[in-house]
Specification:
231 residues; mainly alpha; 11 helices; elongated
């Protein structure tokens, strides 16, 4: 390996170590208290050395946020890809179930991306694509149903799609030529409901309300699938 290759490998390993330690600090101290100096102390590094990898706390937070979005998105995509393409309901279930499973297994990382905003932090545009992965996976299932003729985009035509951002339906592969359609809006409703249910569960809002979170979640996933027209 060349000297440049060795330096690149060492840099990648140290970057990963810094991020791993920072994730542990998320669990113990929370995102708002994340400190590059504290991460440097745990690694036995001078804080000036850590700043060469992450110039600011916000740069480190952005890396952790993108990693978390990519991880939950990858879990959903991998689960969905393992299901027969023609079984739309099973693909839908796979996306939803894998999303919840990842969140339950990584509550602090989930809280970083779907919990309270970090004071003083403004997420850059680089987080947008990773944040959309689960929603896009759900949209692909519906779009495949439309293409196969098993999902009727004209059903339940309330015109709610006009409330969405211009071009959103096209970006996620859903029909957008019917001003009376509500399919894209129902997809957004399903996506936000999915994360709302997970957040309520993880942040304790269903305590003394739901006794069996897994069963409640599975039933809701089926109802959402019906709402978006999956057969």
């Amino acid at each position: 390996m060349t000297a440049a290759g060795t330096r690149a490998r060492v840099r990648a390993e140290l970057t990963r170590e810094i991020a791993d330690v920072a994730r542990r600090h998320l669990a113990s101290d929370g995102a708002a208290a994340l400190s590059l100096r504290a991460v440097a102390r745990e690694l036995g590094m001078a804080s000036s050395a850590v700043y060469r990898y992450f110039p600011s706390r916000d740069d480190l937070l952005t890396t952790l946020i993108v990693d978390a979005y990519d991880a939950i998105g990858a879990a959903a995509e991998q689960a969905e890809s393992a299901v027969a393409r023609t079984d739309l309901r099973a693909r839908w279930r796979a996306v939803c179930s894998a999303t919840r499973t990842w969140a339950v297994a990584h509550p602090h990382e989930y809280a970083l991306i779907y919990g309270s905003p970090v004071p003083g932090y403004a997420a850059p545009d680089t987080t947008t694509g990773p944040a959309a992965r689960v929603g896009e996976a759900l949209s692909r299932v519906i779009a495949d149903g439309v293409a196969a003729g098993t999902v009727d985009p004209a059903a339940d035509a309330t015109g709610a799609d006009t409330a969405l951002a211009p071009g959103l339906a096209v970006r996620v592969g859903l029909p957008a030529d019917d001003p009376g359609s509500s399919l894209a809006a129902r997809t957004v409703l399903a996506w936000t409901t999915l994360f709302g249910m997970i957040s309520f569960e993880l942040f304790g809002h269903t305590h003394n309300v739901v006794a069996d979170n897994a069963r409640y979640f599975d039933d809701a996933v089926e109802r959402l699938a019906t709402m978006v027209g999956l057969p």
